[in-house]
Amino acid sequence: MQVPPKALRLSRQRLCISTLSAFAFVLLLTSCASPGPPHPPSLHLSEVVTDLTADRVGEGVHLRWTTPQRTTDGLKVPSPLTAEICREISPKPEAAPVKPSRQTLPLQEAPGCSIVLHLTVKSGVTEADDQLPAALTHDPVVLLGYRIRILNPQGRSAGISRAALVPAGEAPPMVMGLKATPTRTGAMVEWQPSNAISVMELDRTLLSVPTAKTSKKAAVALPEEQPIEVKLRAANPDADSVDHGGTMDRTAIRGQQYRYRAQRIRTVEIGGDRFELRGELSAPITLIMTDHFAPAAPTGLAAAPGTEGATATIDLSWQANTETDLVGYNVYRREGSSDVFRRITTTPVVGPGFSDATASVGHTYMYRVTAVDGTGNESSPSNEVTETARKF
Question: Could you give the CA distance from residue 148 to residue 52 in angstroms, rounded to a whole number?
Answer without folding.
Answer: 8
